Structures are given as structure tokens and as C-alpha cells.
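HUMAN: Quick job: go over this next protein and say how the chain folds.
***
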Amino acid sequence: MSPVLLWLAQAALGAVTVEGEPEDGPPIVLRQGEEVVLAVTDAEGEARSGETVRVVHRPGLAGEAELAIGISDGRGRVRWTPELSGLARLRAGDEVRSLRIAPAAPPLGVEVTLGLLLVTSLGAFGYGWVGPRGRARRG
């Protein structure tokens, strides 16, 4: 199951917060390809249904692209899977929240990487012991 992120847009007060994070904190960090659930609420914490949620990739740069994620349901929620990595901004009505989308996790795990390192090291040791012509060195 992918992680769930609740994004609270407090429209009346003009404050955008993320559950558990201060308003003036660093951008939210998401992972490319992992689904998140965005929850849009008003100043009183009530769900805002029918609110269009958009994401702006590469805001303020050449190649800026805006994409509508969806319209919040009866509980004020929208599901989204980030497809592009980099800096972005979420918009719900007049509210904006910055985020950073990290690239997808590399396909190799730690165990596979350590295994490849071990095999490569043993191969290099064997090559150094036998030499390029296949004859063992005499010491």
C-alpha cells in the first residue's frame, strides 16, 4: 500500500498546511510513481467537494506545465500519482503549496547491489592473481 498524504487547503484564512508540518516548513517531498491522497478542506476543517486540484510542474521556469489532477469528491479527497519528478506546486482554488517530487526508487535493492559488488571484487582479485594470460604468478 502506498503512503497517504493529507493536504489541507484552508481557503478562508489563506493558509496551506500539511498534516503534521508547519505552514512555513520546507516543501513536501513525494516520490514519483507513488499514489497520494490529497484532502482539501476549508478554514473550519470541513471537506470542500467539487474543488479542482491542479499541479504545476517546473513553476516559473521554461517548460512550466499545469495539469488538472482532479476534482475533490464528497469527502474533499483527490487521489494522485506523480508522474514527473522535480519541483512542483499544488493548487486548490486560490491556495498553493510547494512540493518536491523525488525520482522513482532505483530498481536494484541494497542486497543486489552488495552482491554485484562482491562478485566484481572477487573477479578483480582473481584476475590480479591469475593475470591476463591465464598463468598463475610465481611469488
